[in-house]
Amino acid sequence: MLLSAQAYQKIDRELAKFPGDQRQSAIMASLAIAQEEKGWLPPEVLEDVANYIGVPPIAVQEVATFYNMFDTRPVGKHKISVCTNLPCALRDGEKAGDFLKRKLGIEFRETTPDGLFTLVEGECMGACGDSPVLLVNNKHMCVRMTEEKLDALVQGLKAQGESA
C-alpha cells in the first residue's frame, strides 16, 4: 500500500457511490486523491490505485494520461496551467504564457530549478469570456490576467513557497 490510510478511506467513499460492477467509475476521483497526497502519479501509484479499485492497470493509466489535470511526471509546488486554446489565445492567452515563461525562466512542461513552479498549456477551462485564464494547482482559477496580475500571482506563490 503506497497511500495513507486516510487516502484509502477517501477512495472507499468514492467506490461506495457506484455499483460493484462499475468500480472503474471511481478512477478519476481516486487519482485525484492519490495525486493530492503524493504530488504526482508515478507508475507504482497508478498500479496501486488500479489494484485497490480492482480494475486493470491500463484503465487507470489511460485516465491518468488523458486528462491534463493528472501529472505522471514530477511537478513543481505550484503548477500553473495557461489556457492557450483559440478563444484565450485571441484574447492574450499566448501573451500571458510568454510573460510567465520569461518571468519564470522556463518553457511549457518545465519546472523551475528551485522546484516551485511548473508551467503547462491547459485545455479550455470554460471561462473564455474572462481570458486570459489560468489554473493554479488544478484548483484556483485566475481570470483576466494582465502582466501586473501575473507578476503579483508569481510573487504571492513565491512567498508561500518560502514560508512553507
Task: Return the average pLDDT rounded to an integer.
Answer: 93
What are the low-pLDDT stretches, counting only 5+ consecutive residues below 50? none
CATH architecture of the largest domain: 3-Layer(aba) Sandwich
Gyration radius over CA: 17 Å
In the sheet with the most strands, the strands line up as 2-3-1-4-5
Helix count, DSSP H or I runs of 4 or more residues: 7
In CATH, what is the homologous superfamily of the largest domain?
Glutaredoxin
The secondary-structure class comes to alpha+beta
How many E strands? 5
Helix content: 40-55%
Percentage of residues in strands = 5-15%
Query: What coarse outline follows from CA principal-axis ratios?
Result: elongated
Supply the CATH class of the largest domain: Alpha Beta
Under CATH, the topology of the largest domain can be stated as Glutaredoxin
Gap from first CA to last CA: 28 Å
Pattern of helices and strands: HHHHEHHEEEEH
As for the number of domains, it is: 2
* Biggest beta sheet attributes: 5 strands, mixed
